[in-house]
# Entry
Amino acid sequence: MEICFVCTGNTCRSIMAERIAKKKAKLRKMKNIKFSSCGLEAKKENITDNAKSVLKELGYDGRDRKSVKFKSVKPNVLYVVMTDYHKQKLGAKKCLSFSELYQEALDPFGQNIDAYRLSAKIIEKNVDVLLDKIENLRGGL
# Structure
């Protein structure tokens, strides 16, 4: 299974979601899931300093990484987007918006560290709901 988190620039929310999901899935001993992230308007910029700081604070990978631009929909990938707007722009059949899981994650870009903390907490909750759904599906197979 491959899950790709998508936002606008891939410097805040989607990269935080990718790293949060990787660690949470590992802690749950969930195997055979590949996580990635990209941005609809990514420009090969680095993850923001506030995103790195908040990830480190919360115990996740806070290393640098350049943003990845979304290229095209791949049929075997489940896309998980931050907002309904992203879902509309993406146009993928296999796509979930955070609003369908728990709550949209608004863009903290350019805001203070507290906005990033709030975004990360919302992302953590969405990832928990997503992983619960995956575990429930697998358990029912």
Summary: The beta strands are 2-7, 34-39, 77-81, 95-97.
